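Researcher: Can you fold this with iron/sulfur cluster in place?
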Amino acid sequence: MAGHSRSAALLHRRTAAILRGLHKARPQARVELAYRSPFELLVATILSAQCTDARVNQVTPGLFQAFPTPSALAGASPAALEGLIRSTGFFRSKARSLVRCSQALMDHYGGQVPADMEALTTLPGVGRKTANVILGAGFGIPAGIVVDTHMARLAHRLGLSRQTHPVRIERDLLGLVPKRERIFFSIAMVLHGRYVCKARAPRCHECALSAHCPSRDRLAPPPPRPHQGRDRG
Ligand code: SF4
């Protein structure tokens, strides 16, 4: 038990240090999807599956001009929608999700995005991860922590969770990150994973969290090999 509480204390200290590092490195962390309302954030988040935020931001202005409300999107023809979102990939299923999601908003929530985890996750195309994005960034409600591929990778590398299932990783993180920090932590960690702690080539030498990261030495690329001089003669 003593060992258990020692390691729990260590994890809490490490999490606090990580939060300090993130605040220093990314004091203004914001999601990179462009949106003006929870509805636009919901649409953009659905489109961001398997796609970069930058690409989503290229299509959403045209999409919101053509279909500015849940009511307009609920009545959209899949073909018209597919043409507008094609470049985000998986456009057929995304078009279907957007229409069905908007129809559900009209049928059950008076055309409003509900500010509630349980209600959000009943919407087609919306899982817990998307719901956490909408609640946190859209409504300012720290219901949970967003666990996407970046967060999962960082939670492992930073030794904050050994779990592989996103819900279990989130449970571990919720036990470590104070509620008032959940929204910032969700956004800042995802950005840190996108730009610094990259999947294949983490930039440990410029990482604000490296002093607290158990993976730092393990993942740092080996020093460059001395030149072999193969091109003699
Ligand atoms: S030190 Fe390296 S592995 Fe650890 S969080 Fe930073 S970039 Fe990722």
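Model: Folded with iron/sulfur cluster in place. The chain has twelve helices and no strands.
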